[in-house]
Amino acid sequence: MRAAGAGIGAFYSPVGVGTPLAEGKETQEIDGRVHVLEYPIRGDVALIAAHRADTMGNLVYRKTARNFGPVMATAATTVVAQVTDIVPAGDRPGDRGHPRHPRRPPGTGRGPQAHRARSPLMTTTVPERTDRGPLTTDELAARIARDIPAGSYVNLGIGQPTRIAEHLSPDAGIVLHTENGMLGMGPAATADEVDTDLTNAGKVPVTELPGAAYFHHADSFAMMRGGHLDVCVLGAFQVSQHGDLANWHTGDPDAIPAVGGAMDLAVGARQVLVMMGLFARDGAPKLVPACTYPLTGPGCVHRVYTDHGVFAVGPDGVRVLETYGITVAELERRLSVELRT
């Protein structure tokens, strides 16, 4: 069940080797010990019991009654919980509530994410315009925020993407996830709001919204890898015309590798968006025919938001959705990819 909820396709275990439970199953010797290959257990509906729930769906368990409840909740499409009482979001005592896992039914897609259903992005496509210059970082963050569907569970990557949090409508019901262990993250903290124990993955102090839940890194990465997030927004060094992503290393032997949670998000989020400048400081394009930097994930990016325009990428190449301060003709001269409009 834990593997199903964490997006693990199969795993080797020493449990059951030499017993009837291992008959007919693949085995592998690992570190001198025989292991048997096991597959995840998934459910369409999980019926579990808990002590208390809040209106956001977080559950509190009492003593030994936790059992398999939290684990099976992550491995099922729909969870039905029997509880003693339901309290308003934020009324759970302390941080003891076990977080809900965002759940969506399985579906089809493309590339390495073909096992996941996709929540369609909103779009506010406007005609090409050149009456002003490129978008500022805050303008670009606001532009991306408008495309995130209401009610989505969203991870915002370190750096520029964190600015998107400042532009999300409180009425949209969007729940922010941060890989260091939180659902229900609010905007950046200021003044007396700052709590050094409440930060995002970039160590920036943030606020919490009613119904926020906390958990350790293993649970957090399971949410990311297990297909429980609707949207993630990442920065990038390069994005290829077919949606390959490179954002963790430039190949410089002196650079410190910084994978972070990007690889888990690349294979786990239903929609992977990129927020970046279209051109590097030396003028080189970052939207390229093929990535020359080490890949974070192949074929995982769906849309690229840049200061000069918005682009859809995928198996069919690049489609220009919007331009800012530049024409499509100019883009065709500066980029080495074929553009569709």
TrEMBL record:
It comes from the Bacteria. Keywords: Transferase. One of its GO terms (molecular function) is CoA-transferase activity. Residues 87-133 are annotated as: Disordered. InterPro entries: 3-oxoacid_CoA-transf_B, CoA_trans_fam_I, NagB/RpiA_transferase-like. Belongs to the 3-oxoacid CoA-transferase subunit B family. This is 3-oxoacid CoA-transferase subunit B. It comes from Streptomyces haneummycinicus. The lineage of its organism: Bacteria, Bacillati, Actinomycetota, Actinomycetes, Kitasatosporales.
